[in-house]
What does this fold into?
Amino acid sequence: MTIEYLTLQPSGDKMPLVGFGCWKVDPKDAPETIYNAIKTGYRLIDSAANYKNEEGIGKGIQMAIKDGLVRRQDLFVTTKLWSTYHKKEHVRKALEKQLEQLQLDYVDMFLVHFPLPLKYVPIEAKYPPGWYQPGEDVITLDRAPMHECWAAIEDCVRAGLTRNIGVSNFNVQLLMDMLTYANIRPSLLQVELHPYLQQEHLVRWAQQQGIAVTAYSSFGPTSFVSTGSRRAKNVQPLFENPTIMDIAAKYNRQPSEVALRWSLERNVAVVPKSLNVDRMKMNLQALDWKMDEEDVQAINGLDMGLRFNDPMVNAQKLPIFY
Ligand SMILES: NC(=O)c1ccc[n+]([C@@H]2O[C@H](COP(=O)([O-])OP(=O)(O)OC[C@H]3O[C@@H](n4cnc5c(N)ncnc54)[C@H](OP(=O)(O)O)[C@@H]3O)[C@@H](O)[C@H]2O)c1
It folds into this structure.
């Protein structure tokens, strides 16, 4: 398996085009799952404080290093700043806590998870805190301007705690604004992208600015059925879509491989998650083949603008994408 990379600006670091996603990996399964992912050939681990499993991920990484599967410098570890830590005085402490859990001296990429400042919850009170104040079930926003948050994130680069910085779930307006004040430009944008939500203008514009793009939830509704999402349950499963199935048959591939390959054809990185070693392997094989332009175009025709990771329809009722 040859790993392919995107070159990040401004660091020049190489980020693997296919990584391993860690959302919904049970904390107790995380060490073995991450170990298996690294053994399978993954070199990018996509983590976040809010996935509530960074301690287990850290153990898995350390097991793999100890067994000689990889060296730290062979791995590209991404993590994300949770929304309760947007105030400038909390950013570095939050990252230091994550590094402690991951058992790392630095991460390769630190992303703002959502453009959404939530009221601070002290690490000692509850970690990771999730969306709400302890004991509450309503959202409380905080006055934490993104330009101050970003300046504190830039300081984390200068302190050697992260090699690259970027954003997730941002739109063009937020990025345009960020480019007016950033001293270190964001090198990556991670957003929900799949054949049912293609966000073509956002992807193309970011890439034109030299900002690399990672797709999350490449399998569309697949990952959201288990969260109880009505949108995910009501739509045709991506893997049963006739266009996807026909293209899979043409190349003697699985529909999941078609979904991943379509992203790579747009120069967009992917971070599929699987607990199953055979599916982990299959997902890495997206690197092994090419798709004809006519098939890319056919998949481009499936766009419905259908978003599954939407805090408006989830319990939070936050219209951040509207
Ligand atoms: N930045 C953000 O806000 C954000 C939001 C969501 C996700 N993410 C990142 O993106 C990663 C991927 O997204 P995701 O976890 O939502 O979902 P995903 O990778 O699109 O889909 C995962 C689902 O597909 C199944 N699956 C995996 N490989 C398969 C295959 N080859 N054939 C059939 N089924 C397969 C998995 O089940 P099994 O495990 O049983 O194989 C799981 O149910 C996350 O883990 C996370 O790292 C980021």
The chain has eleven helices and ten strands.
